[in-house]
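Table 4 source record.
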Amino acid sequence: MDWKARNRDLARKVEIMTRTPDTLNRRSFLRSTSAFLALPLVGLSAGLIALPLSGCTNSESTLARSKVGGKSGTQPSWETVILSDKEPGEPLIISGTIYAPDGQTPLAGINLWVYQTDATGNYSTSGGNNRNTRLHGQMRTNAAGHYQFRTIKPVSYPGRRIPAHIHAYVSGPGYPEYWIDEYWFEGDPFITEDMRRKLAGQGTFFPIIKLTRGDDGVLRGVRDIRIERCSSNCTGQ
């Protein structure tokens, strides 16, 4: 029996099926594949074994392989967008630089994780794990230590006198993850003078951010961060 000729014929049939799946009904598909099922494995060439499954694109397969434990295997970018264009609220872009403990040397490869409430002041999570709320994102500083994320200006918790804020965690090589002061915003009526006094002396690392509105209507603010080795504010993650 000429197995090579038979395999070539089968390969053509499989190629036709993968190119034109909509033209095959269930009965014709079974007839076309019955010959394949009857073939002994020793007669199959390596080329046939490597044929892709119908309905699974190369990009989908690559994505599936890049995820381990539910997390993407790709490296975070220095900038991210943590919501869709249809998200209600005032568009906001926050940027800055993360520095070494000396406050002068920009650090590359430092992770920044942020999360926040939506335009109603609520987190869209259950079980109290607000860190994984719908509006969250991660960045990793570039060679110049820069980061940037696009979001909306958060709103205070309903019925509470707490300033609107964005939570943040920092980590990197030699720096276990820890939480930092929230991102707050100048002009918030719930920021008290006592809060300002406690945060004074941080210079350019002051967490209360002044926002400006560009010609495009987008609010923008800058906050630099001086990294530290965590003490009581470690997350253990």
